Amino acid sequence: MNRKLLALAPLLVFVLLCVFLYQGLFANPRELQTGRIGQAMPTFNLPDLMDESKRWTDTDLKGEVYLLNVWGTWCPTCLAELGYLTELREQGVKIIGLYYEQGYDPDFDGQFDINALRDDVTSMLNRAGDPYQFNILDLKRTLALDLGVSGAPETFLVDKQGTILLHHTGDINPRVWRAKFAPLMQELQQ
Amino acid sequence: MRWVIFLVSLLITVSAFAEQDKYQFDNNEQAARFSELTKELRCPKCQNQNIADSDAVVAKDLRDKVLALVKDGKTKEEVIDYMIDRYGYFVHYDPPVTPATLVLWVLPVLIVVLGFGFIVLRQRKASVKQTWTTEDEALLAKLIEQNQRQEQN
C-alpha cells in the first residue's frame, strides 16, 4: 500500500506543477502590487492643466470618493477608455485627471508648449468624451513617481479621508469596473 | 619570426572603454552607489530591465530620483526603501522574505533535505543485517554442487 502511494508521488507532483503553471497562463505580469495602497494620498501642489494660475493640493481633494485617472493624449489606451469613463461620470462617479506628460524632460527645459498641449487635450476630449471634473498637470511627473505610476493609463480609487484603496494599471472597461471597482464603490457608499 | 610574433599579437585584443558619464558626482563613493542602485532597481514598465538599462520615461524619472537622493547623502538602503514605498517590492531585484515569497526560500531547502533523507533511509534499509541460518547454508552448498556437476557434464 505504501509502495503504491510512493509510486503515485511523481504523478501528484506533476499534477500540482500543472495547476501552478496553468494558473500562470492567466496571470497578468503588468498587474503590480504597488506600495501606496492603504496609505494617504501623497502631498502635492500642482497647477491645473487648463489654467496655471489655479493650483491643486492633496487637501483640496479630500471629502469625496474619487478616481484619479493618469492619462495623456499620447496614449492610445487612454483614448480607448475615455468613452466608458464618461459613462461612469454620467452615473455620478467623480473622476479627476492627472495629466502625465511624457514628452517633457527636465534636462531639456523650455522645449514644452503648454498651449499646443491644451489644444490637443480639448480636441481629444471633445471627440471622445470628457470624464474629468478637472485635470492636474504633473509636468515633471513628481506626483506620478510618489504614487508609483509606471505609465498610462493607471487609475487610483481614493476614499473620503484621502486613503488610496486601489491602484489599477491599464484601461478601465465594464469588466474591470465590475470586478475591481464596483464592489469597493458599493462598500464606500454604505 | 618577427612577423609571426606580430601576427600572434594581433590575436590578443584589449577592450578599451571611453566612459563619459553625463552625471556629475561630488565623490567616487556617490558615483559607485548610484551605479549600484540603478543596476539593482528594476524598471516597472519594461519588466526585465533595470533602470540603468531602460529607456522608458519612468526609468529615466527613477534614475533622476536616485541621483537626487544619492546626492542628498542618502544611503543605499534609504534609496531602496524610498522606491519600495512607491513601486512595491517589485522594483527591487532582491525580494525580501514575505509570506508570498517564502516558497522561494523554503522549497529549495526542502527539496535538498527530502532528497538526502530519502538517500539515508534507503542506505539504512539496505544495510540491515540479514539472517543466515544453517538451512540457508545447506541450500547454498547444494546449489554449488549442482552447478559444478552441470559444468563437468
A few lines on this structure:
By secondary structure, chain A is an alpha/beta fold. Helices cover 40% and strands 17% of the residues of chain A. Chain A: It is a single-pass membrane protein.
The CATH top-level class label of one domain in chain B: Mainly Alpha
DSSP strand count of chain A: 7
Number of strand segments of chain B = 0
CATH fold label of chain A: Glutaredoxin
What oligomerization state is this entry in? Answer: heterodimer
Largest sheet of chain B: none
The CATH architecture category of chain A equals: 3-Layer(aba) Sandwich
Distance between the first and last residues' Cα of chain A:
57 Å
**Helix segment count of chain B?**
6
Count of discrete structural domains of chain A: 1
**So what's the overall shape of chain A?**
elongated
Helix content of chain B: 55-70%
For the record, the CATH class of chain A is: Alpha Beta
User: Mean pLDDT of chain B, as a whole number?
Assistant: 86
Largest interface: A-B, 19 and 18 residues
Protein name (chain B): Cytochrome c-type biogenesis protein
GO molecular function, one term (chain B): metal ion binding
GO cellular component, one term (chain B): plasma membrane
Function (chain B): Possible subunit of a heme lyase.
Word description of this protein:
The complex is a heterodimer of chains A (190) and B (153). In chain A, strand 3 (66-71), helix 2 and strand 4 (95-100) form a beta-alpha-beta unit. Chain A is of the alpha/beta class and 190 residues long. Chain A has helices spanning 2-25, 76-90, 114-128, 142-147, 174-189, and strands spanning 45-47, 55-57, 66-71, 95-100, 135-138, 154-158, 164-169. Chain A has a single domain, classed as Glutaredoxin. Chain B contains six helices and no strands. The radius of gyration of chain B is 34 Å and the shape is elongated. The termini of chain B are far apart. By secondary structure, chain B is an all-alpha fold. Chains A and B meet through helix 4 of A and helix 3 and helix 4 of B.
